[in-house]
Design brief:
mainly alpha, rod-shaped, single chain
């Protein structure tokens, strides 16, 4: 194989190793980023909506004023569009039913207060489901980070070995021909014109 081809092969190997390591790094960074985004986007939004509904009940007497009812409805509507966890759909449906009873002014005050307690119970269920999901997804994200550390560490070690080997082999590759060339030139300077160089 000619020197030119060997050099091309060596640099292509170097290029492939760098691309492989870069692609692996980007893959894991994207995976970690995506898992964190999902946790923040879905579950924290639900906890915020639950907190808004709970605040309406904490800060207002039963029966609720029209303004308090609108605040509660707004948060409930957002939560109905943000159902992500198993069992959350049933809890939100129960919350909606209980809020309907709470908001029914034709019922007695005791029935409305009972409905308010049901609303709080369903809010607790929704919050518990989403807190558990945050913990689970957080553990998954941590596991992904651990896996990324292991794989990237292994890829770094392999890359280092390949590049280290490449650098030393490249030096050896040039050393022999240069040594022969130098010796040949020295022979010619001594007027030994029968000297031949072979590459």
């Amino acid at each position: 194989m000619k020197m030119k081809h060997k050099l091309h092969a060596g640099f292509w190997l170097l290029f492939v190793v760098v691309i492989f390591f870069g692609a692996l790094s980007l893959f894991y960074l994207r995976l970690i980023s995506k898992s964190e985004t999902v946790i923040l986007k879905d579950n924290y939004a639900t906890l915020e909506y639950s907190n808004q509904m709970r605040t309406v009940l904490d800060e207002h007497e039963i029966p609720l004023t029209p303004a308090a009812t609108e605040k509660f409805k707004s948060a409930l509507s957002k939560e109905q569009k943000n159902i992500t966890e198993k069992g959350e759909n049933e809890a939100v449906a129960g919350l909606n039913r209980s809020f309907g009873i709470l908001n029914n002014t034709s019922l007695g005050i005791e029935q409305q207060r009972g409905a308010a307690r049901e609303v709080l119970k369903y809010l607790g269920q929704i919050e518990k489901l989403n807190l558990s999901a945050i913990e689970r997804k957080s553990q998954n994200a941590n596991q992904t980070i651990k896996n990324a550390t292991i794989y990237l560490g292994a890829a770094s070690a392999i890359t280092f070995i390949v590049l280290f080997s490449f650098v030393f082999n490249l030096a050896d590759f040039f050393e022999e021909p240069l040594k022969s060339l130098t010796e040949g030139i020295e022979q010619i300077t001594r007027k030994n014109y029968k000297t031949r160089l072979y590459f």
